[in-house]
């Protein structure tokens, strides 16, 4: 539970809307308010947006968030995300998002500080896990 809301994290896959609707109906529907979709990359955003829309329309979730490591954002990705049920998409800056593709739903987080800390700790023979604790 986060802020008194019931949250579930799901990794969408190909044919996500069918799989997620079935999973959502069987497992989550009665006790989930928010869903967080986690993916490695967003290319055309078809899988991600279909999953988000299915969870809201057929599953009844109140809010859907998404996050991904790589924002490829090709073809119809921006339009799909903008018109989807997704409230916010958190992305890492592993691929820069051009200004013309930036929308209000995007939150971009930098990876450079984490990478720099990892390199410094490895070089200085210090434990890496301490960087996150």
Give structural notes.
The protein is α/β, with parallel strands linked by helices. It is 34% helix and 25% strand. The chain has 4 helices and 5 strands. The chain has helices spanning 16-28, 46-59, 77-82, 112-123; strands at 7-10, 34-42, 63-71, 86-92, 106-109. Helix 1 (16-28) packs parallel to helix 2 (46-59). The protein is globular. The model has no long low-confidence stretch (mean pLDDT 84).
Strand count, sense and closure of the main sheet?
Answer: 5 strands, parallel
User: What fraction of residues sit in β-strands?
Assistant: 15-25%
Structural class: alpha/beta
Helix-strand pattern, N to C?
Answer: EHEHEHEEH
CA-CA gap between termini? 22 Å
The total beta strand count reads 5
Q: Which sequence of strands runs across the widest sheet? A: 1-2-3-4-5
Number of helices: 4
Question: Can you lay out the helices and strands and say which pair or pack?
Answer:
Blueprint: E1 7-10, H1 16-28, E2 34-42, H2 46-59, E3 63-71, H3 77-82, E4 86-92, E5 106-109, H4 112-123
Parallel strand pairs: 1-2, 2-3, 3-4, 4-5
Helix pairs in contact: 1-2
